[in-house]
Design goal:
The chain is an alpha/beta fold and 254 residues long. It has a single domain, classed as P-loop containing nucleotide triphosphate hydrolases (Rossmann fold, 3-Layer(aba) Sandwich). The chain is 35% helix and 17% strand. The chain contains 10 helices and 8 strands. β3, α4 and β4 form a beta-alpha-beta unit. The chain is globular, with a radius of gyration of 18 Å. The protein starts with 10 loop residues before the first strand and ends in a 9-residue tail after the last helix.
């Protein structure tokens, strides 16, 4: 059952009507006659997104905020990792803002809010990723005066979010051994511009027949400079190392 909704104000950000062109058209609906037009629209939209991402980054720097974009498939453990992080940073909870991306529900933002951390739900509707414009809208609804950490949970997907920077300082990809042994090899693009890979649910590796060492080698083969950390968020393994690598300060004693 989903968690009970916490008391208090819930901010939900949604795209404006017509805000998102069909930027996946060239992938799904292209033809000999319409292909060049769709490709041009795709290029214009992604370039505009990059410009907005740079504006977001400048805003974060202006306010002294560290921003982290967390990506991964549905069920990889993104929300659980964020929950574990904010619990360990309980002494800084007033400085933390979590922006949770999802297609329709507020489940993830509600889970975060239960830890007395500010959360904003961004519902993308039909879109399979967040973009820089939606992040700007979310930030416009928040008080950034005391905010020092912004954690963005992207929509669960290993494909669509790859081409859409949000303006974060660090990009983290969470993968789970329950996704099987090939998910990194099959989805290399999302790792090219990422900084950290978190291999989660390592306690289930033997049961799933997945070699965690091989997953790490796959990630390093795509981008040798990637940092790879192993976690079992449910069992509290590796979370402190993630916090340390992200430069979020010292975790509170559990």
């Amino acid at each position: 059952m989903p968690p009970a909704k916490p008391k208090g104000k819930r901010i939900i950000i949604t795209p404006d009507e017509g805000e998102h062109p069909d930027h996946h058209a060239s992938h799904h609906h292209g033809s000999a006659s319409t292909g060049p037009v769709n490709i041009e629209l795709q290029e214009n939209f992604t370039e505009r997104n990059r410009q907005l991402a740079e504006e977001n980054l400048a805003m974060f720097d202006q306010h002294g905020i560290r921003a982290i974009n967390i990506l991964g498939s549905v069920g990889s453990g993104k929300t659980s990792l964020i929950e574990a992080i904010v619990k360990r940073l309980a002494n800084r909870r007033d400085e933390i803002l979590v922006i949770a991306g999802d297609v329709t529900t507020t489940i993830d933002a509600d889970r975060i809010a239960q830890h007395k951390v500010r959360s904003i739900q961004v519902n993308t509707g039909v879109e399979c990723h967040l973009d820089a414009r939606l992040i700007q809208k979310a930030l416009a609804s928040a008080d950034l005066s005391k905010t020092r950490i912004v954690i963005i949970e992207n929509v669960g997907n290993l494909i669509c979010p790859a081409d859409f920077p949000l303006g974060a300082h660090q990009r983290v990809v969470v993968v789970s051994v329950t996704e099987g042994p090939w998910m990194i090899q099959k989805h290399p693009v999302i790792f090219y511009e990422s900084d950290l890979v978190v291999i989660n649910k390592i306690d289930l590796a033997d049961a799933m027949g997945v070699n965690v060492d091989q997953l790490e080698r796959d990630a390093k083969r795509i981008k040798p400079s990637l940092v790879v950390l192993r976690t079992s968020v449910r069992n509290g393994i590796g979370v402190d190392e993630v916090i340390q690598h992200l430069g979020l300060g010292s975790a509170s004693p559990r």
